[in-house]
Amino acid sequence: MDLTFTDQEDAFRADARAWLEENVPRPPLPSGDTREGFALHKEWERALFDARWAVVSWPRAYGGRDATLMEWLIFEEEYYRAGAPQRVTQNGIFLLAPTLFELGTEEQRDRILPKMASAEETWCQGWSEPNAGSDLAGIKSRAVPDEANGGWRLSGQKTWTTRGAFCDRLFGLFRSDPDAERHHGLTYFLVDLRAEGVTVRPVERLDGDEGFAEVFLEDVFVPDRDVLGAVHEGWRVAMATTGSERGLTLRSPGRFMAAAARLADLYRRRADDGALDSDPTVRDAVVRAWIDADAYRWQTFWTVTRLMDGGQTGPEASLVKIFWSELDVRLHETALRLLGPRAELVDGDDPAAWIKGWQFALSGPIYAGTNEIQRNVVAERVLGLPRR
Amino acid sequence: MRDAVRAFLEKECPPKVVRDAWTNDTGRSGLWPRLGELGVLGVLAPEAHGGFGGDELDLVLLLEETGRAALPEPVVEHAAVAVPLLDEARAEAAAAGAVTITVAPPSGLVLYADTADLVLLGDRFVEPGTLQRRRHESVDGSRRLFAIPAPPPSVQLASVDRVVLGIAAQLIGLADRMLTMTVDYAKERHQFGVPIGSFQAVKHHLADVALALEFSRPLVYRAAWSIARGDDDRSVHVAMAKARASETALHAGRVALQVHGAIGYTTEYDLHLWMKRAWALAASWGDAAWHDARVGRAILDTDRLPEEQ
Q1: Contact A291 B215 (CB under 8 A)
Q2: Which pLDDT does position A61 carry in this prediction?
Q3: C-alpha span between B21 and B35 (Å, rounded)
Q4: CA-based nearest distance B201→chain A, Å
Q5: In this complex, do B198 and A81 lie within 8 Å of one another by their Cβ atoms?
Q6: Residue B308 — very low, low, confident or very high, per pLDDT cuts 50/70/90?
Q7: Residue ranges of domains in chain B, CATH in brackets
C-alpha cells in the first residue's frame, strides 16, 4: 500500500484549492432543497462545469478531466474543505452517470451527460413507491409498450424523490412485464418530468425544505431511446447505481473531515467560553468523531488503492454506507451537545447550520437502503450467513 | 510473506498449542526458533544482519497473523521493540530466535520475564535474573507476568510507538479470528430448525463486528505507514490505531461469546483463549480511553487544521 501522493496529485490539489478559494460563493448559498436556493445552486454548478471541476473523473469529451479515483478524492477533500455548496446535480452525476457509462448507448451518453454535468438538465431518482421502500422489488408502477409511437406508456406513483419538485428529469424502475414478479420484468426508464401526464407534488421534509416530492405518472409517453439497458433487465441495471450510492461515490471522506474540523473548532470555542464544565464527556465524543472521520478517510484510500490496482467493489459498499451515515449522525449530535440550549435555534449562524445538518444526517441511516437492510447485506453477502 | 506466516501458524499453532501454553512450564509455543527462520522475529532487522529488512507495514501484517493465531510469545516486544535497538551481533542472534527479549512496560508487569534472556528496562537491556520479580497470574493463562518493584524509567518514544502499534495489529488479528469462528458457528448451530446465523438479531451483531474491523484496520496500517516514513504525527496515529483496535477486539469478543451462547462460556471450547488474550492486550500499553485522551490533546489543545494533524 503506497499512500504517498504523487507530484501530479499534489499539483492537482493545488489547482483545485486555488480555484475554489477564488470562486466559492460567500456568504454560503441558501439550501439547494428550496426553489430559490436550487436556482442559485444551478448557477454555481454551471460555474463549476465551465472551469471543468463539475465532473473531474469523467472523460474530457463530457466535460471532465479524466481524473483518477485518487484525484477525485483529492478534489472532494478540497471541495468540502473550502466550504463549497452542496451538489444539487449529485443524483445524476453520482448515480445515473455511472450506469450510463457502463450500460448506456453512445447516443444516450452524448445526449445526456454534458447537460447533466452543466446542470442544464437536472436529474432525480425514482426508486421508492408508497409500498416499495426497503423492499424495492415490490415496485408496482408499470410500463406498457406503445409500439405505434416507438416507446412506452408509464403509469403509477414514485415517492421520496429528492429535489423532484425542481428537477427536469427522473430515472427509475417500472414493471414492464406484468406477469413477472419481484426482481424480474422491470425496465430502467429515463423520464421527462415536463411530459404530459406527469404531476409532481412537493413534500416538506423534516427540516422544513421542500426537498421531497411525490411523482404521479398517468399514461406518460417515453420513447425507446430513453430505455437504459435491456428491456426487462432493469433490476440488474439499477444495481449498478445503488452500488455507487452506498459505496464510494456518494459520500466522500472530505465531507466528514471538514465536519470534524468544524466540530473541533466549535469545541475549542465553547471550552474557551467555559461552557463545557458541566459536560466532561463531550470531549470524548468530539475525539471519537474525529478519529472516525479519519478512519473513514483511510478506509477509502485503502479501497481506492485496491480499485486502482484492478480490484472490484462489491457488497462491502454496505459497510461503507452504514459507517458514514452513522458517523454523520454522531458528528452532528455532538455539535448539538456543544451548543447546549442554543442548539434549537434555526436563525443563528453556527446553531442553524448544525441543526439543519443534523436533520439532514438523520436521513442517512434511512435512504439508499436502510441500515437494517445494509446489515443484512453485510451478514449474508460479506460474511456468508444464510439468508433464511 | 504474510501468507507464508499465516499458513505456518495455521499448521503449527492450532488452538491446542495456545491451550497447552496455559499449563506448560513456559507459557510459550516452542516455535520461537522457527519464527526466527521464517523471518518474523527479524522483520525489522537489516538483511545484512540476518533480518528481513522490512518496515513497519511489513511488521503489522505479520503481527496481525500472530494475533489471528493467538500465538503465545513475546513477539511484539521482541520483534517490534528490541531487535531495532540491538547492535549488529546481538540483532543477528535475536532475528534468528536464538535469544528472547521482552520489554518492561510502564505498568511494571513484564511478560515472560522467566524465559526471556534479556529485559529492556527503560533504555538498557538487563538480565532478568538481576531483577526482583514477583510472579502474577493473568486471566489469559499463557501470559506469564512478573511484577518488578520500581516502575521502569520511561521507554523511548519510538519504541513505545512500535510496541503499541504491534499490539494494535495483534488485536485486529484476534478480532478477525473471533469473527470468523463465530460466523462459522452461526452457520452450523441449529435452533428452531434453522441455523442461528439466519436470525437478524444474530446477523446484525456480526455485521457490527465486521463494520468495526473494516474501519479500525486501516488506522493500524496508516499508523504503520506514518512510523515508516517518519511522519511528525505518528504517535497520534498510533494512538488512534490502538484505541480503535482495542475497542474492536473487545467488541468482537463480546459478540462472539453472546452468539456462541453457553458453549462459549466454557473453557473446553477454544473461544475463551482468544477472548482473554483480547482482554489483556486491549488494556496493555494504554486502553482505548487512554489513547483517545492522547488524541484529544493533540487535536483539541492546539489550533492545527486537520490536514496538518
Answers
A1: no
A2: 94
A3: 17
A4: 10
A5: no
A6: very low
A7: 2-147 (1.10.540.10), 157-308 (1.20.140.10)
Per CB distance under 8 Å, which residues of B are interface residues toward A?
57, 179, 183, 186-187, 194-195, 197-198, 200, 202-204, 206-208, 210-211, 214-216, 218-219, 221-222, 225, 229, 240, 243-244, 289, 292-293, 295-296, 299-300, 303, 305-307
Give the whole-angstrom CA distance, residue A13 versus residue A7.
Answer: 10
Instruction: Give domain status of residue A107, yes or no.
Output: no
User: How is residue B161 written as a grid cell?
Assistant: 510507538
Tell me the catalytic residues of A.
245
Instruction: Tell me how far apart the alpha carbons of residues A162 and A173 are, in angstroms, rounded to a whole number.
Output: 16
Give the gap in angstroms from C-alpha A46 to the nearest C-alpha of chain B: 29
Give the minimum alpha-carbon distance from B102 to chain A in angstroms, rounded to a whole number.
30
The CATH number covering residue A222 comes to 2.40.110.10
What is the ipTM, given to two decimal places?
Answer: 0.93
Q: Do A82 and A142 sit in the same domain of this protein?
A: no
| pLDDT tens digits, A336-365 | 999 999 999 998 778 889 999 999 999 999
Domain that holds residue A260: 247-382
Position of cell 432493469?
A234
